[in-house]
Structures are given as structure tokens and as C-alpha cells.
Design a protein that fits this description.
The chain is of the alpha/beta class. It has helices at 4-14, 47-50, 59-71, 82-95, 106-122, 143-148, 152-155, 173-179, 205-215, 267-270, 286-298, 301-324, 348-356, 379-396; strands at 26-30, 33-36, 41-44, 99-103, 130-134, 165-168, 184-190, 219-223, 247-250, 261-265, 329-335, 338-343, 359-360, 362-364, 368-371. The radius of gyration is 21 Å and the shape is globular. The structure holds pyridoxal-5'-phosphate (PLP). The site of pyridoxal-5'-phosphate has 15 residues, from helix 5.
């Protein structure tokens, strides 16, 4: 048995210190609760950062992983598996056709999407390579995806970065229109910005972006790694805006916690890739796909309706808190169960105080409390977190 103190010591000595961790050691979870090694119970409103969409220990997901593990964990993409075919069929059906590719993470999904967009654009013209991204976006930590990420703090020290990326304010259509031309290969955006502080664009933004991209044969890539998988009450967040991208990327919640990433491209965009153009050893292996199948099967219309009503209820409660502390809470925003509460102070101490009180929440962009709980959350469980916030927030206000 290792004590928590021993675990902290080993981590400090042997693990790369890239994470600013909170000082608890988590042991197991059940539903929307997790337990640390001291037996303390926490309500989990972070869900592994929008990953544990079915919470912890969801029977159909656990059974799917266990039975697939017994049959076969991995086989090469040189062969077919039913689990992968099932997952591809389900995702393509949600997208409305097209072609699916599986990788192992969000960054890999975006990396693949960028490669496909470049190959497609180069088939039109060899100078068609510019990729326009948004400030405050987040697309991952590989060299291309951190370059797509419009936040200099993630890029400093890693140059030279891949060329051909530029940035525009998210939600500002006029600014985007000025930048797009024949040399534009792709516009790459999150449908709702997550890490950047939970930003939802104006209602008509994506329709105009879609029209602009069509005019110049520009590939519209929507990164739904955080906002997709039912998070907003629709399977894809773009469905709220009445458009469809040329490529959508998914990861986080797709297999409920088993590492996976995917992009889905329209048949037209997908024509640019041929055998050997892209690949992955682990990507889409039967274990990850069995988990994805269980998650995709769970996301019925009733499931999504619950996300919508739970999200509306949660938002109402957060707005009520804002009314009580208007000088402290600047704004509540988001859609479904990706909600942000912008406060006038740094959020880290608030997050720590909530942890003390038994609630796991998160802060992003410095001062935005972010809530991305499991999508199976109930109103009673939302009330528990609201109770914690009601106790904690006034201490900082
Ligand atoms: C988390 C995230 C990524 C990166 O995913 P990883 O699995 O950490 O590589 C990319 N885009 C968005 C919108 C994300 O939220």
C-alpha cells in the first residue's frame, strides 16, 4: 500500500511535471460520483474533462469493454473487425454519410483532419494551403494542432511551427470574410469554444461561414471534441446552427473514457485520401470501438432530451446565483451541459474550495468556472453542486 504522500512524492520525482494537479488521489467512481483513497466522496462535474459522458461504472459500457477485452483487445488495421465496422456505421449515420477515421486522441483527430483538408485543397491548387483558426481556440498539443490553437502561451518555445496557419476572432464573421480567399484551404473552428472559456458564437455565424466556405471551396473543419457527443443536447453541436461541416472531429466522450479520436468527412472531402495517406496502429482497435459502440447506443433521443432539460435547469440555477452575486459573476453561458460561469477573480481557489466541499468542478481561461458533467446527470445531482457553489462563491465574492 502506498500512502497519498508517497504517491505525491513519486509523482514529483518520476513524472514529467506538466500538470498543475489538485492534491487528491482518486480511486474509483460510481455514476456521477468519484471517491479518493481516503474514502471521501465527490460529485464529479468535470467528468474527466467532458470524457465520462456516461459517468463512472455505466453497466453497458463496462460490460462492452470487459467482453471485448476477453475476445480480443487489439488487432492491426490490416484486417477487419466487426466492432470497428459497427462504430463507423453508427458515426456515419449520425453525420449523414461520409467516411470515418479512428485515431486515439483529440489532437490526432484534428491532425488527421488538417492533413485531409490540405490534401483536398492541394488537389485544387498547390497554393491552396492557408488554414484559418480562431483566437482562444484549443485543438491539441501536437505541433500542427498547437499551431492551430490560437493561444500563444501554448506555442511559445516550440518553434519553428508548421506554416500556413492564421487566426481570427471567433464569432466575428466580417473579420473572417476579409481573410478567406482562393488560397484558403480550411477554416477550422470549435463549434463552441471549450478551453477558451465556453464561448457560443452568434446564431447566424455558422450559416454565413458555411456559405463563405462553399464560395471558395474551403474545407470547413469543426472541432467537436468537447462540444460534440451529445454535450449540447444534440449529437453534434453544429446541428443547433442548421449547417454541416466538411469534416467534424470527435474524441473525449466518444468511448466514455477509453482513449479514442475520430474524424468524419463528407464523401467529397474524403476523396483526397488513398491507401497509405494516413494511418494509425491503435486507431479504431476493437476495444476502443466496443466502448464507442456502447456510448453511441446509449445516446438515444430520450438521452439527448435529458441533456437538454438538465442543461436548461442547471443554467437557470447558475443564473439565479449570478443574480445573488452580480458584482462577482459576470456571465453564465454555454449550451446543454457545457456551461461556463465567468467570475471577476481567478478561479483556482474557488475550484479548490469546491473540492474541499466535495465537488469537482474546473476553471478554464483563468476566470471561467467550467461545468462539463457526465450527461446522465439528474436535477437532484445538479442541486448538490448548486448547494456547494452557494456555500463557496460568497467567500470569494
Ligand atoms: C481536449 C480537446 C482537444 C485535444 O484532445 P486530446 O485528446 O487531449 O488530444 C482538441 N480540441 C478540443 C476542442 C478539445 O477540447
Amino acid at each position: 500500500m502506498k500512502t497519498d504522500e508517497q504517491i505525491f512524492e513519486i509523482d514529483a520525482r518520476d513524472y514529467l511535471p506538466v500538470f498543475a494537479r489538485y492534491k487528491i488521489v482518486l480511486d474509483h467512481g460510481e455514476g456521477v460520483y468519484v471517491y479518493d483513497t481516503q474514502g471521501k466522496k465527490y460529485i464529479d462535474f468535470l467528468g474527466g474533462i467532458a470524457v465520462n459522458v456516461l459517468g463512472h461504472g455505466y453497466p453497458a459500457l463496462v460490460d462492452a469493454v470487459a467482453s471485448q477485452a476477453k475476445k480480443m483487445i487489439h488487432c492491426s488495421n490490416l484486417y477487419y473487425t466487426k466492432a470497428q465496422a459497427d462504430a463507423a456505421e453508427k458515426l456515419a449515420a449520425r453525420f449523414g454519410g461520409g467516411k470515418v477515421f479512428f485515431g486515439n486522441s483529440g489532437a490526432e483527430a484534428n491532425e488527421g483532419a488538417i492533413k485531409l483538408a490540405r490534401k483536398y485543397a492541394h488537389s485544387i491548387s498547390k497554393d491552396k494551403s492557408e488554414i484559418i483558426c480562431a483566437w482562444h481556440s484549443f485543438h491539441g498539443r501536437t505541433l500542427a494542432t498547437l499551431t492551430a490553437t490560437g493561444q500563444p502561451k501554448y506555442q511559445e518555445g516550440f518553434g519553428p511551427l508548421p506554416g500556413g496557419f492564421s487566426y481570427v476572432d471567433f464569432g466575428d464573421y466580417d473579420a473572417l470574410e476579409k481573410m478567406v480567399n482562393e488560397k484558403t484551404c480550411a477554416v477550422m473552428l470549435e463549434t463552441i469554444q471549450g478551453e477558451g472559456g465556453v464561448h457560443v458564437p452568434p446564431k447566424d455565424y455558422f450559416q454565413k461561414v458555411r456559405t463563405l466556405c462553399d464560395k471558395y471551396d474551403v474545407v470547413l473543419i469543426l472541432d467537436e471534441i468537447q462540444s460534440g457527443m451529445g454535450r449540447t443536447g444534440k449529437f453534434f453541436a453544429y446541428e443547433h446552427f442548421g449547417i454541416k461541416p466538411d469534416i467534424v472531429t470527435l474524441a473525449k466522450g466518444l468511448a466514455g473514457g477509453v482513449p479514442i479520436g475520430a474524424f468524419v468527412a463528407t464523401d467529397k472531402a474524403a476523396t483526397a485520401f488513398h491507401a497509405g495517406d494516413h494511418g494509425s496502429t491503435f486507431g479504431g482497435n476493437p476495444l476502443a470501438c466496443a466502448a464507442a459502440n456502447a456510448v453511441l447506443d446509449a445516446m438515444t433521443p430520450e438521452f439527448l432530451a435529458n441533456v437538454e432539460s438538465a442543461g436548461a435547469y442547471f443554467r437557470e440555477k447558475l443564473e439565479a446565483l449570478q443574480k445573488k452575486l452580480p458584482w462577482f459573476v459576470k456571465e453564465v453561458r454555454g449550451k446543454g451541459l457545457i456551461l461556463g460561469m465567468e467570475i471577476t477573480k481567478e478561479g483556482r481557489d474557488v475550484v479548490n474550495a469546491c473540492l474541499e466541499e466535495g465537488a469537482i468542478i474546473n476553471c478554464t481561461a483563468g476566470n471561467v468556472l467550467r461545468f462539463v458533467p457526465p450527461l446522465i446527470i439528474t436535477k437532484a445531482e445538479i442541486d448538490e453542486v448548486i448547494d456547494v457553489l452557494e456555500r463557496v462563491l460568497p467567500r470569494f465574492a
